[in-house]
Model the fold of this input.
Amino acid sequence: MKKLFGIIFVALFGAMPALASDWTIGAHIASLHLPARDFNNVNPGLYVRHTPTGFTAGAYYNSIRKPSAYVGHTSQWAGFDVTVGVVTGYERKVSPLLLVSREIGNGWRVGMAPPAGREGATLLHLMKDF
Done:
């Protein structure tokens, strides 16, 4: 898992100069979990999104203190970005991913994800698009 996280992280940084305006590069920053239990709320990571196709991929340090990598598709619906895909690094090797987000100004983005399983929590997530 650490190797996959490292490969995605290096690929995202290495691709930055070659990315055209059709691509968004962003940073995962922090989360707030409701209810608050013992989750990690500092979630550094990077992502890319290809606007014309909706392809989205990224990696981050997750809420249970493990590296995660994900791939999915982002589309717009009623002024929100809706990302659906799969993510690694949780109790199951591969889990479903759903994140609804919206830019709130100057590239800052807030997202929300539903609880994953019975012991999960609703997630509010802060990101920054570049």
In short: The helical segments are 2-15. The CA atoms of residues 91 and 124 lie 20 Å apart. DSSP finds one helix and eight strands in the chain.
